[in-house]
Amino acid sequence: MGESLKADNEARKVAIVTGAASGIGKALATHRIHKGWRVACCDIQEDAGAALVAELGSNAIFFKLDVTDYDEQAKVFSQVWDKWKRLDALLANAGHSDRGSIYILNHRGKTEIPPKPALLSLKACYESFLYGVQLAIHFMRMNDVPGGQIIATSTIASIHPHQTFPEYCGAKAAINQFVRTAAPILKMKDHITLNAVLPGIVATGAVPQASLDATDPGHLTAVGTVVEAYDKCLTQPNINGQLIECSVDKHIFLSSPELGNGDATKRACTVWEPLFEQKHGEKSGLPGAIL
Ligand SMILES: NC(=O)c1ccc[n+]([C@@H]2O[C@H](COP(=O)([O-])OP(=O)(O)OC[C@H]3O[C@@H](n4cnc5c(N)ncnc54)[C@H](O)[C@@H]3O)[C@@H](O)[C@H]2O)c1
User: How far, in Å, CA of 89 to CA of 71, rounded?
Assistant: First the structure.
């Protein structure tokens, strides 16, 4: 390999994109390729994923992956590492809304205990995100320059309740709170930034036609707005722990909620440092941590 080709190869960043076979994930993967990155496109949909990478060329590889399976995710991360020897970004985008009904409206009048809920939305949105975060931390530590970027696709439904899919709203809200909570430590200890983007309604296969028909076209969020929010996080390392609402063509950086009862609420939230070492094996090192 010539020197310039080698330099070019070294410079080319690597992303893992989950839920890459369609909708927002497909747009994210395609955009990264156009930016010169190498992209591991992961999805449960094998045919659509294979068709995408055929379109994207040799810098894209498809991995059939169910993100709810930790071992499967670990295998993909390992294969990406073996192939490209770096991991710059995890775009944790896979997810879906409720597949069961926690309201059990059809169980009225029955005396037996209702079946255990499958919680597939919780698993696909939140558990799998935490699996990805842990694996990303592990591999990003091994980068020549340790560190990287993790971004999740959350949703505006995580802030403003959508009664139709309460499990999904809770799962995505959990992503938000995890992002705000873990971002300062990840940045300080491992040079990893962590953010979430919260799209409004984006015209993808996940949205029923009737819902799209009921939405004023001027209120739809362009997929490009979501891609640009990801771009902001990837290009501005000072953006960390942020929830970025993507609405129509706008990015709104959401503020944290106000303290309900001033100093009393603040103390209740900031006196947990003594447990940090017990739980994680070393001090947090956060400036201003209260003992
Ligand atoms: N479309 C919207 O209006 C909207 C709004 C806010 C947030 N979102 C979020 O954006 C993300 C992408 O959704 P989309 O609208 O592009 O829908 P989509 O259905 O087009 O794409 C989701 C992709 O995730 C994949 N996927 C689902 N479960 C998976 C699993 N267990 N493992 C691996 N892949 C899996 C699907 O196969 C699909 O390709 C989701 O997290 C969704 O919750 C969508």
Answer: 20
